[in-house]
Here is the input.
Amino acid sequence: MRFLGAWRLIGACLLVVLTWQVQAWRLGAQMERQSTAHAQALSQQSQAALRQQQAEYDKRLALEQQLSASDQQHARELSDAQRHQAALRDRLATADVRLSVLLDATEPGGVGSMPATAPAGGVVHAATRARLDPAHAQRIIGITDAGDEGLIALRACQAYVRAVAR
Here is the structure.
């Protein structure tokens, strides 16, 4: 009987060990499935993050290109305005062009007034004009030059804000 009891004890121990082993296999397989599912989820999240990062990069690159083109356009406008103002100042300095102002029609001929130009063979019926001193004309051109530059800079700032706000 002792011999049978020992075998029962050994059989029971083997059954317990076998049960533990089966449970370990099951737990291992379940952990492996969970690990695989977790790795796939992380991979999908990583790919989604990479796609989103690429989309943001593409948007930023497009915005930078748009702003660069806008900067070039505004630089051209500023350069053209400065060139035009310089040409006008040169023409004023060489007396190629003279600035004049309209005189009040209710005042009888003012000092230094000059008649408006008449068409060939015609009579002057236009308002009387007075020529500006060249130094004053240069200052007026300088003021308009600064105003033009300010307007161009304002347009550039507005274009930048519009582009960034999108």
User: Anything to note?
Assistant: The first strand starts at residue 100 and ends at 102. Residues 2-93 form the longest helix (92 residues). The chain has a mean pLDDT of 83. The two ends are 91 Å apart (CA to CA).
